Amino acid sequence: MCTLETRGNIFLLTLTGNTEHRLSRTLISQIRSLLSQIRSESKSKPGSVLITTAEKGKFFSNGLDLAWAESDGKSHYRDRLIQMTFEFKLLIADLISLPLPTIAAVTGHAAAAGFMLAIAHDYVLMRKDRGVLYMSEIDIGLTFADYFMELMRARFGSPSNLRDLVLQGVKVKGEEGMKMGIIDSVYDSPEETVEAAMRLGDKLSLRKWHGEVYAEIRKHTLKDVSLVLGLVHKVVMAPRL
């Protein structure tokens, strides 16, 4: 479902398994467990960086596991969806509060919660030969969780971008996403996207920022997101180098 490699100061988290990389309760739990491991290990590794990507294929992530939510009949669909949405909220909170820089290397389609997973990272790199960014909720008849909306407001750059993505379900390719300010850079293939993420990770690693300071500043830049996620701000003063 997901793996974790360590390459120097870079933690490489890869979504594996079925090609859609649906965010099931199991996968959400596995990612959270690995983020907890990264949080712990990074304390003794100044300059740590996280890169999240997916196995080569059509999807980075196609969102929450709606098939599981529907599998026990209509009467349980809402409760199961609420359960997954809450557990995914905890994952997003983990990412926003992670004490190191984070990079998403989007190697395929990123839809709904998969799109949210990507933009919960500090930097988003994407392939341009295939793959789209897509908020499918308007098309499949679902409203957005409050933390989805706050994260989209923070990351989509303008009211018109937000309108087009959530009220029209516009599908955005990598180069267009870069023009909109959602994507930082685009590349010709999945391999080049991951390689670029590794280069950026190496560059960020050289700064050796204090992890807790980094996390607190990130939370303040995403103040409304942090509030709805229930993240508490604290003052951190690291020793001067």
UniProtKB/TrEMBL annotation:
GO terms for cellular component: peroxisome. InterPro entries: ClpP/crotonase-like_dom_sf, Enoyl-CoA_hydra/iso. Pfam families: ECH_1. It catalyses: a (3E)-enoyl-CoA = a 4-saturated (2E)-enoyl-CoA; a (3Z)-enoyl-CoA = a 4-saturated (2E)-enoyl-CoA. The chain crosses the membrane at residues 90-119. GO terms for molecular function: delta(3)-delta(2)-enoyl-CoA isomerase activity. Keywords: Isomerase, Lipid metabolism, Membrane, Transmembrane, Transmembrane helix. Pathway: Lipid metabolism; fatty acid beta-oxidation. GO terms for biological process: fatty acid beta-oxidation. Its EC number is 5.3.3.8. SUPFAM superfamilies: ClpP/crotonase (SSF52096). It comes from the Eukaryota. Signal peptide: none annotated. Belongs to the enoyl-CoA hydratase/isomerase family. This is Delta(3)-Delta(2)-enoyl-CoA isomerase.
